Amino acid sequence: MERVEALLGQLTLEEKVSMVSGSDAWHSTGVERLGIPAFKLTDGPNAARGDGSSGARAACFPVGVALAASWNVALLESVGAALGDEAKSKGAQVLLGPTINIQRTPIGGRNFECYSEDPHLSGTLAAAFVRGVQSQGVAACPKHFVCNDTEHQRHSVSANVDERTLREIYLKPFEMAVKQGDAWSVMSAYNRINGVFASSHDALLNETLKAQWGFSGIVVSDWGAALHTVENANGGLDLEMPGPPRTRGAKLLEAVRDARVPETVLDDKVRRLLTLLVRTGRLDSPAETPERSDDTPEKRALARRAAIEGTVLLKNEATALGQPLLPLDPAKLNSLAVIGPNAEIGRIQGGGSSSAPPHHVVHPLAAIAARAKDVELIHEPGCLTHRYLPAFDPRQLDPLGRAGEGFAIDYFSNLDFSGTPFRERVERRSKLAWFGAFASDVRDPKFSARLSASFTPDTDGVHQFGLMSAGKSRLLLDGEELIDNWSSQTRGESFYSAGSTEVRAEASLEAGKGYRLVVEFQREGNQLIAGLQLGVLPPAAEDPIGDAVRAAETADAAILIVGTNADWESEGHDRAGLALPGDQAELIDRVCGANPRTVIVVNAGSPVETAWLDRASAALQVWFPGQEFGDALCDVLFGDANPSGKLPLTVPVQLEDTPAFEHYPGKNQELPYGEGIFVGYRWYDTRGIEPRLPFGHGLSYTTFAYGELSVERAHRVGESVSAALDVTNSGDRAGAEVVQLYVRELSPSVPRPEKELAAFAKVWLEPGETRRVELELPPRGFAFWDVVDHDWRVDPGEFELLAGSSSRDIRARQRIELQTELGGSRELGGSRELGGSS
Known about the structure:
This protein is α/β, with parallel strands linked by helices and 838 residues long. The chain contains 18 helices and 38 strands.
């Protein structure tokens, strides 16, 4: 671009160096002399949070795994476009998402953000999401490049992975996001790959990403991941975040002057940054707009649709009446028990940088009450599942004369709460976090804050209070210090492992009486991340599971909503295992025993232990489904919508069955990827291990019949292959089926999985309707990575195409032959497998 080159030619060396580092937590660095503005970045990928200090709220869409469970490419593009618009509402030009690392182990702390265990599904959906975001003139930023597949020791661990596995599994989604989505930015990871930090990895950033894939965008570091000056500069990192610079600035200027970093390398980085400013329109609109909450009916409807399409019907068996339990008919119910720790307060998102304050939340219990308004509802939580004490109910907090519900917060530009606050607001949340400076208009990272409210409990008795923070904090109750997390702290896993453990204390309170709570917080300015989290636990029921069982026994049907929350599934740490937290396993067992008409709703972002599935009549996986959780759940429960989600991952019987079990978490900060290419269903299929639920599984309220798979029997190596089959809705409800096409090489020259997903399509059908589903398999669908030639290779020979409703429910198959030269076709034995419920 002439404009970019003209600006580049006018920049001084000092100005160019300044541009390749951030100016604060969320902004790049501009050059005022030449009218070059900074651009703004915001966290995604399921909501555009903004700088986190403006008070603006966000449209919270389902998390990544829930979106992937839709298997709907068009939907992902629509959600991407909506989030691009949301980023603009926060004055941002870059949305940090999608997260497309592979779900290598089911206990990865950020699995809920990631799409799938399968690289083709991940990459196809990522490309669509990227196209949607960038249709709004906002850069998408696929992350974290690459092999940031667990949170354990993520800042230093070396993912030791062979070349073939790296190409076929872990790089593939990023390659598709770049080549098919034309991503304008990519985020480098914290971890090392084969001993080299991701932000310094010349072979991956310069050779693979930029040279081989033709990536023309910027590589931005994960926050604080840039650890070296010369290595990062020469290794391909374009923008160090956050600012002000730690490894660049004066250090980089000296390195360029000493010729340790060629100025041409610096010029390439600046050229890419200027190109991003042009692509996003920022260069022509330098004035930053204030953050705003953009709550629209269209975004609410899209978030609801996405939550519905991501819901997976795991099981739906006939009850004593001879009909499947779901969908429920309110007209045939006199009473309904709504049970579980996630019933009254549903969990809409996981923990960490992806979380954002939603415009509103529709929780399950309230939505069910509104939908089944003529049915007697009986609610019991059943058990507690918190890791940290639950957040305060803002309805119990009076902000001491200010309008609204929650805490009154005063921010001071000093460390001793003196003078006039520079910002005042009311905050409904009990967890707050800050990155870098407090906000774009408050550059000094040092500040103090005081939270105040009158707390009115609902019950008499001993209440537990909990406080943890990244920074100093203390809690006062009616003027007396109750919790001291100020004079000394113990490091914990909160705030990405930068915060303290939770400090707890008890106080005996009276129901209906107001108590003055004050939290004082101090950030000294020397830490990247600051934050505090306050919780309270009222007196527990004597027999909560017994209460739930009695509720289930007396009801015509029960809805049991179980799962995890952001304490357990979060950036910063992995889970310890598959078990549901608390006493949920016992709760499920006893409630199912008390009422066979029980629907289990799993509100978790990753696989959980599901031995109880044999006892349940019906089960739904809803993931962390975003702000419209309750209404979307009701749409499926009561049949207003037909579930069409499919599992984008395998649910194992036990953790010991999983591919990475023998290798995770490694030793001495070395993490071997010893399972190689056999990730997810590839492992289970090739090793003959039976999963609890297979990859691609998902039932419907209707049934689908598959016709014969039609494909030309012979093709030349390197050509695309077109396959087609008829799919018929053989049931009595409209619904959607996801046709999955897998490829198997019959006589491979190298070890290959039993089968690999190569294409898929989602088709909507009315009762009795038949449609022709066409699937295109590019040459890469048959290829493997040749470690000798360091390139993709397709061997001539026989392959089998398998079309099905899941990886273990194959309905039609056909053999084809790939030939070096076509000399006529041979009959290779096609077959058809009909029927089945999906």
